[in-house]
């Protein structure tokens, strides 16, 4: 299956299509950029075709999700290295870790479900971006808030999308032409 995400230049909201479902999604605070322009910390969602590597989830908050991706529980010691000069850049780490690392065990709900996308991981290139995930959206009222470069959906919508995902599923992120 291909999950297609589209967005206009600079837009923090896009459209996600998975099978016969089309829904609004949150994008990075800087919108979608071509993969050649993607840089660590730019807040942009990288355009391209990214395999869905695995699903991480909070077992203390959710039952095991119905999904055919490889699934792992998030633990309080799980992190993701975002330090470009570190040997484990854009890889899972155990906390505490000496380099800059994003905590996956969060107080909010953003990583209750978190799909690791295959952006900048084969091979890892320093400064090309890290921790590009497909996760639960932060919402203010009914508005989806921008991410730091990921794609995000409300939790119930994300659960519905994941039910049809498998190791062959890819997310294709496309930058629309400006009207």
Describe the structure in your own words.
This protein has 179 residues and is mainly beta. It has one domain (2-175): L,D-transpeptidase catalytic domain-like. The protein contains one helix and 16 strands. The chain has one helix at residues 155-162; strands at residues 2-7, 13-18, 21-26, 32-33, 45-46, 48-57, 71-73, 78-81, 92-94, 101-103, 113-117, 133-136, 139-140, 143-144, 151-153, 170-175. The strands form four sheets. Strands 1, 2, 3, 6, 7, 11, 12, 15 and 16 form a nine-stranded mixed beta sheet that branches. A three-stranded antiparallel beta sheet has the order 9-8-10, with no helix packed on it. A two-stranded parallel sheet has the order 4-5. The relative contact order is 0.27. The mean pLDDT is 97.
List keywords for this structure.
179 residues, mainly beta, L,D-transpeptidase catalytic domain-like, three-stranded antiparallel β-sheet, 1 helix
Concise summary:
Helix content is 4%, strand content 37%. By secondary structure, the protein is mainly β.
């Amino acid at each position: 299956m291909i999950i297609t995400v589209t967005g206009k230049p600079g837009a923090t909201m896009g459209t996600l299509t998975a099978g016969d479902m089309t829904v609004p999604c949150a994008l990075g605070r800087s919108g979608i950029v071509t993969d050649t322009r993607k840089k660590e910390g730019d807040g942009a969602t990288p355009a391209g075709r990214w395999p869905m590597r695995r699903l991480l989830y909070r077992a203390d908050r959710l039952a095991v999700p119905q999904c055919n991706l490889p699934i792992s529980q998030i633990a309080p010691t799980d992190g993701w290295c975002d330090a470009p000069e570190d040997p484990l850049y854009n890889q899972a780490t155990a906390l505490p870790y000496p380099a800059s690392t994003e905590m996956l065990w969060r107080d909010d709900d953003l990583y209750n479900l978190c799909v690791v996308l295959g952006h900048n991981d084969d091979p890892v290139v320093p400064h090309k971006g890290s921790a590009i995930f497909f996760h639960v959206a932060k919402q203010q009222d009914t508005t989806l808030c921008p991410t730091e470069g990921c794609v995000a959906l409300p939790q119930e919508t994300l659960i519905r999308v994941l039910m049809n995902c498998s190791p062959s599923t890819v997310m294709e992120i496309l930058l629309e032409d400006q009207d």
